[in-house]
Design goal:
176 residues; alpha/beta; five-stranded parallel β-sheet; 55% helix
C-alpha cells in the first residue's frame, strides 16, 4: 500500500474523527495527510466561522472547491473532507476523476453531539449548519440530507461511534 499512488478520502459529520484518523492513517500508509478545512482556513487567513459570517457560505464553498481541486492532483495522500464537500457536484466529479477512495466515518448523532460539545474549539471555529442551532435535531437533519450522497460515493462505511482512532485506522486499512 505504501507505493500505491492513490488518494484515500475520509468523509463524515463534524466530530466523527476525520482529521485525527486522517493523520494516523496517513502515517500508517507512509503518505501525506491533507485536511481540506485546514487548507481553507490557511487560504482565507480566518476561521470557518469567520468566513461564513463575513463572506457567507457560498464563498466558503468556493474556497473548499479550490482546495479540493488542489488535493485531487496529489498522489499518495489521505484527504479529510469537510462534511459538506460532497454537496457540490463539481467536487464529486473531481473526486471521481482522481479515483479518490472515500471512507464514511459514521457516528451516532448523540455521540457526535457529545464530541462536538466537548471540543471548545467547535463553537469558536465552526458555524451552525442550519437554523436548528447545532443540536441533535440539526445533526439528524444534515445527516438525512448528506448520507445518501456520501453512500453513493464511498468504498466503505465504518461505524466509529464506540471505536478509538487507532481502531478506526485498523478498519480503514482493512477496507482499502
Amino acid at each position: 500500500m505504501t507505493n500505491d499512488p492513490s488518494l484515500t478520502g475520509l468523509i463524515g459529520y463534524r466530530g466523527s474523527g476525520k482529521t485525527t484518523v486522517g493523520k494516523l492513517l496517513a502515517d500508517e500508509l507512509h503518505c501525506r495527510s491533507v485536511d481540506i478545512d485546514q487548507c481553507i482556513v490557511s487560504a482565507a487567513g480566518k476561521s470557518i466561522r469567520e468566513i461564513f459570517e463575513e463572506a457567507g457560505e457560498p464563498a466558503f464553498r468556493d474556497l473548499e472547491t479550490k482546495c479540493i481541486g488542489e488535493a485531487m492532483r496529489l498522489q499518495n495522500a489521505v484527504v479529510s473532507f469537510g462534511g459538506g464537500a460532497l454537496d457540490r457536484e463539481e467536487n464529486r466529479k473531481m473526486m471521481t476523476a482522481a479515483d479518490c477512495r472515500l471512507i464514511y466515518l459514521r457516528c451516532e448523532p448523540a455521540e457526535l453531539l457529545r464530541r462536538i460539545r466537548s471540543d471548545p474549539q467547535t463553537a469558536v471555529n465552526r458555524p451552525n449548519l442550519t437554523a436548528l442551532g447545532g443540536g441533535i435535531d440539526e445533526i439528524q437533519a444534515v445527516l438525512a440530507r448528506r448520507e445518501p450522497v456520501w453512500r453513493g460515493m464511498i468504498v466503505a462505511e465504518i461505524d466509529v461511534t464506540a471505536l478509538s482512532p487507532v481502531d478506526v485506522v485498523k478498519r480503514c486499512l482493512e477496507s482499502l
